[in-house]
């Protein structure tokens, strides 16, 4: 197929295995920029350092730019610059916009039948990923993940920026070094019972 993405990549044991690309939606691009250390650690660990597998979509790229501009205090020019730098750092390529993609109609029917509320842009991204040979998508959007699976793509939940920050806070609390208690009659209350209520 004309738009098919094919990559030959080395895996453990020195075996060369044919595999296809990994698709990133807008939320993952944003997480890689706004919380780079933890997000990149998660992604590279999952992919075993194989950056050449990564793809995104023109619609996802523009959506990420708008969200960085509107919600993260980047200027319009800065949002473009950081996204281009991210693409360069991870060698993230873009699949093509496919006109009259038959997979889009198929996904529309599947979502309607399954009451999946994925948005039109998400369905366009997913259908183009599918047609281009992407085998795995990463997203922090449950509707995107559900629609990906409906059309036969593997899909994994990528931690949102809020969850990454919350996990950092949780880890900091449980790993905080113990302080020597003084002899004051009025001790500070222990708030450890709150830890299980932090959703990781």
Question: Top keywords for this entry?
Answer:
single chain; about 200 residues; alpha/beta; Rossmann fold; five-stranded parallel β-sheet; 8 helices
Note down, in words, how this protein is organized.
The protein is of the alpha/beta class and 200 residues long. It has helices at residues 26-34, 36-47, 58-71, 76-90, 102-114, 120-132, 142-150, 161-174; strands spanning 7-10, 16-19, 22-24, 54-56, 93-94, 136-139, 154-157. Helix 3 crosses helix 4, helix 5 packs across helix 6 (120-132) and helix 6 crosses helix 7.
Topology:
Blueprint: E1 7-10, E2 16-19, E3 22-24, H1 26-34, H2 36-47, E4 54-56, H3 58-71, H4 76-90, E5 93-94, H5 102-114, H6 120-132, E6 136-139, H7 142-150, E7 154-157, H8 161-174
Parallel strand pairs: 3-4, 3-6, 4-5, 6-7
Antiparallel strand pairs: 1-2
């Amino acid at each position: 197929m004309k738009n098919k993405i094919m990559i030959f990549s080395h895996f453990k044991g020195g075996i060369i295995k044919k595999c296809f690309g990994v698709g990133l939606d807008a939320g993952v691009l944003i997480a890689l920029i706004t919380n780079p250390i933890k997000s990149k650690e998660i992604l590279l660990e999952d992919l075993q350092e194989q950056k050449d597998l990564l793809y995104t979509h023109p619609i996802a790229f523009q959506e990420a730019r708008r969200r960085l501009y509107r919600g993260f205090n980047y200027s319009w020019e800065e949002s473009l610059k950081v996204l281009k730098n991210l693409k360069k750092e991870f060698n993230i390529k873009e699949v093509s916009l496919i006109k009259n993609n038959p997979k889009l109609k198929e996904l529309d029917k599947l979502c309607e039948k399954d009451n999946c509320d994925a948005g039109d842009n998400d369905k366009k991204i997913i259908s183009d990923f599918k047609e281009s040979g992407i085998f795995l998508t990463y997203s922090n959007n449950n509707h995107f993940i559900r629609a990906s699976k409906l059309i036969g793509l593997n899909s994994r939940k990528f931690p949102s920026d809020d969850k990454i920050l919350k996990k950092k806070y949780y880890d900091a609390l449980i790993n905080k070094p113990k302080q020597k208690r003084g002899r004051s009659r009025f001790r500070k209350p222990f708030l450890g019972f709150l830890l299980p209520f932090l959703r990781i």
